Amino acid sequence: IYDTTLRDGSQGEGVNFSLQDKLQITEKLDELGFDYIEGGYPLSNQKDEEYFQRVADMDLRHAKVCAFGMTRRRGVAADADIGMLALRDSKAPVCTIVGKTWDLHVQEVLRVDRAENLAMIRDSVAYLHAEGREVIYDAEHFFDGYRANPDFALETLKAAEEAGASIVVLCDTNGGSLPDRIAEFVEAARRALKIPVGIHCHNDCDVAIANSLAAVDHGAIQVQGTINGVGERCNGDLISVVANLALKKKHQVLFDEGVGRLTELSRYVYELANMNFRSSQPFVGASAFAHKGGMHVHAVNRISQSYEHIDPELVGNERRVLV
User: Which of the ends of the chain has fewer CB neighbours closer than 10 A, N or C?
Assistant: First the structure.
């Protein structure tokens, strides 16, 4: 489980974590057994740069802290690129590099040719790998890119693999894919690569959780997202992903007590972000196990599972009878 709350989440409208907030959330995620914590983009601002200096002195129990960055700029050697140097100097044991997979972005946004884009991916991953870092490669817009030009999209993944990436994460960056496409394209990526794949889904069609679960069913071994789905536009909620993986799919995720503290974690992040709780949020919302209709209350008082898909205590929530 790879948490991006401190980077992707902080890009959300109205979300502004202080340095102390970021360190406290890191501590909480580690305490519950999250595997990777993406701390920020050290080149983007002084707060993120200082975060990596401070977190290096924390005695984390389990989680690996990741520094996020982009591939080197066009026409600049990796060892001379300020983004690459910022990642190197962050001291983070893991560096996550995002690169372009969709030829539309290569040609119209970066304005480079395909060969240079492949070189940017290869050089960036190779440089950080040579510096002794674990490198995760985020294949931005993979699902749109593969639909538009499957051969080129797979070339970009292979460039990262050949340069030393430990895993390639397939990103549904526009959030426009549905589970059947996710399943098909994840399998195509797995056939093309020797290293494992992960999944990062945005929620613009309100199916990020279903998409993430479909990806795992078809071989993805890492899921990325943010707590409560905060972040850029609409984001995938790791709370629901973890609860479904643990309680419905019976995967081993987090520590044994971590799933049982998901409600605590959700509200902790809301409070630090100065955001209102979302009462109807699945699993952890105050209304997720609230019963008001007379027929519902009558039944749930006799046997709770008649109107509850799980025991609310499994995620640290509680039943509420309103009438």
Answer: C
Strands 94-100 and 2-3: unpaired
Q: Where are the beta strands (DSSP E) in 71-188?
A: 94-100, 134-140, 167-172
Q: For residues 260 and 93, give the distance between their C-alpha atoms in angstroms, rounded to a whole number.
A: 29
Q: Per residue in 3-47, pLDDT tens? A: 999 999 999 898 999 999 999 999 999 999 999 999 999 998 899
144-190 pLDDT per residue, tens:
999 999 999 999 999 999 999 999 999 999 999 999 999 999 999 99
Which token pair is 59? 């005695």
Q: Which amino acid is at 58?
A: M
For residue 215, which amino acid is it?
A
Tokens 């799919």 sit at which residue?
249
User: pTM, whole model, 2 decimals?
Assistant: 0.95
The structure tokens listed for 283 are 């699993």
Q: Which pair of tokens denotes residue 258?
A: 């971590």
Closest CA to 148 of 195, 100, 210: 100
pLDDT category of residue 121 using cuts at 50, 70 and 90: very high
Q: Tell me the chain's radius of gyration from C-alpha atoms.
A: 20
Amino acid residing at 269: V
Show contacts of 294-300: CB within 8 Å, 24+ apart: 294/323, 297/321, 297/322, 297/323
